[in-house]
Amino acid sequence: MLSATGLGFAYGRFRSDVVLDGLDWTVAPGRRTVLLGPNGAGKSTVLKLLSGYLAPRRGSVTYDGISKRRHLHRHVAWMPQLVTPLKGLTVEEQVEYAGWVAGLSSKDSRTHASVAIEAVRLDDKAQARADALSGGQLRRLGLAQALVRRSDVLLLDEPTAGLDPAQTVNFREILRNVHAPGGIVVSTHQVSDLGDDVDHVAVIADGRLRFDGTVDEFVTHGRARGVTSGSLVDVFADIVAGGLH
Amino acid sequence: MSPARAIVWTGAAWFCPIVFAVGVYVGVGEVAPRSGYAVGDLAAASYQLSLVGPLVAAYTAFRFSGFERFVRSLVPVRLGTVVVLRAWWPVVLGAPMSSVLALVLAAGAVPRDAVSWQIVGLVFATVLACACLGLGLARALPVALAVPAAAAIAYWWLVFPGAGDGVLLRNLNAGFVVCCTSATVPSPAMLGGSAVVAVVVTLGVMGLWLFPAWPSVGRPAAAAALVVVCAAAFVGGSVLVESSSTGPTFQAIERRTTAKACSDRSDVAVCVWPENASRVGTVARQVVAVNTRFERAGFDRITAVEEDPGPRSIGTVEFSVHRWMSTADVKYSVVAGYTRAHLACRTGDVDAEPSPLEVTAAGLVGGVPRAELTRRFGADTVAEASRAVGSIAAARTWYERELVADGSCGGDR
To answer: Which chain B residue is nearest to residue A143, measuring alpha carbons?
Structure first.
């Protein structure tokens, strides 16, 4: 299980810009979790810390009780919000390389790359240059880079942000067929991303976890708090405004 | 990434030939004419480092910048050093290899002895260190700063300050072209100190990628780490030099101790450096020809000549016989050495240098072509010398008056 305990993080030269302050959270294994939060709430930072990309200033991140960063790197895959294409490499080469960097053998990274590229429906672009992909294709490339690792946990940082509606639908369809035993976390600031396939919701605001439960519990929470509109957006707004669960 | 793909992707396919071309171009200009002494020619050709080093450092700083961001976003499980080398070996190893090939080609010398190999190894290590320096700076600075900084630091390291300036080390470079005449080799302290700098920079930068946290540290911390690595390299090199130096100042060169090739056929002992062994016969013939004319004029005959006989001593005929020297050059060199030896004997000063008139007069008697002497000293000097030694009797008189000492060290030389 991927867990964060007392997680604290701050940016800035003197670490004055506090983003997270004592966050405790466990990613629900085998579930699809949407990590909701307003812009600047610290969603990306949480995912970077959970993946081991960043080291926490306070607290710890563990996977199955082990907090070593290399252990996290091995078991947790992270797709950054900004997917970097490497100039001069084809899509296939870039995904293969991502697999090799993640510790796969050259042979395995080739095999897994083909599967990952097919899973994200980029097989027709496999031999295209990675830096020639469109925005939506780049996101799918990023997802393939994460999938090729075959990690237990998959963390996706706002994967549909900036995509047009058709690309968003396409990406969600792809994501529907992706599975990770340790859980999948998709960060977003849009409540509309709470689709049918989502099991779990976590809401983060002001550096703290404000809600962590199933989608049903999320809706129920809204009713209990007197959100009469039935709108998930209103429930989200209420939680962010201070309705702790 | 397959090896072939890596060679293309890193740009090594076109960059390494450029390194080679620059190395050959600069090296050939420095070496001409080749002496045939491998250490000297290789050291002179190593001047290419002053251009190749900054070029390689700037290139790796430029190309690595985007790659470093890319790899960081992949959150690597493998050791960073392995990741970097796996992608960048074509440049990191190819550029030093290209530089070494250019060195050997420009010098026209295949390293055979230990010192030659050390120079080749040092050139390889230096270019490798420059490549690593660029990689490190790409991590520590934005690309717009990393590229000029890499070039400037490499240039500063390789060209300033001079090797004789004490503890501040620099590599084989412009100031180092004094190394090496056929009588000298670079000192072990010089080679060792420079090697320490190169090796510590290389291992230090590569070692930083062994830390799992290295990809995610901020640029200021990365820059500080790089400063520590460079400082450790220079301090390490300086300590080695200081501990190896016997005198108050660091000597970049020392005397060559290679055994000479000697021959005593034709009643003349001729000793030359091994690279000139094929010209021993030519030298002996020239000495015999000079002796024939000297004896006719009543001069002492030459019985032994030696290239770079070491600390000058009275009675030693010192001469040079590089591969590019004509027979007239060789004959002139022998006569000049003879004149110098007599003057040392006469004055008791082993460092005394004969005047142009003295050398010209002896040269005319010994059969050095008049054109050769005119080329060296001018028509007026040759005319004046001709008047002094115009006849056998006049030559004998001039010899006894100008060159022979009053019995203290006379006799055959």
So the answer is: B74
Q: How many whole angstroms separate alpha carbon A182 and alpha carbon A61?
A: 14
In whole angstroms, what is the distance from residue B213 CA to residue A68 CA? 11
Own/partner contacts of B248-252, CB < 8 Å, gap of 24 or more, are B249/B164, B249/B166, B250/B163, B250/B164, B250/B165, B250/B166, B250/B167, B250/B189, B250/B190, B251/B164, B251/B187, B251/B189, B251/B190, B252/B163, B252/B164, B252/B176, B252/B178, B252/B179, B252/B186, B252/B187, B252/B190
Q: Looking at the complex, does the CB of residue A150 fall below 8 Å from at least one CB of chain B? A: no
> Do A89 and B213 lie within an 8 Å CB cutoff?
no
* Residue keyed to tokens 């790899």: B71
CA distance B169 to B235: 9
Using the beta-carbon criterion (under 8 Å), do A84 and B76 form an inter-chain contact? no
| pLDDT averaged per 10 residues in sequence order, chain B, 413 residues | 84 96 92 84 88 96 85 86 90 96 93 90 94 94 94 86 50 57 83 89 93 81 94 86 64 82 84 88 90 89 85 69 84 91 81 87 91 92 89 85 65 45
Contacting residues of A for B73, CB less than 8 Å apart = 53, 80, 82-84
**Which amino acid, B168?**
L
ipTM metric: 0.81
Of the candidates A84, A87, A102, the beta carbon closest to that of B77 is on: A102
Contacts for B70 with CB less than 8 Å, ≥ 6 apart: A84, A86
Interface with chain B: mutation pick from A67, A100, A149, highest number of B CBs within 10 Å = A100
What's this model's pTM, rounded to 2 decimal places?
0.81
Test mutation, A17, A84, A149, chain B, max B CBs within 10 A: A84
Establish if A101 touches chain B: CB-CB under 8 angstroms. Answer: yes
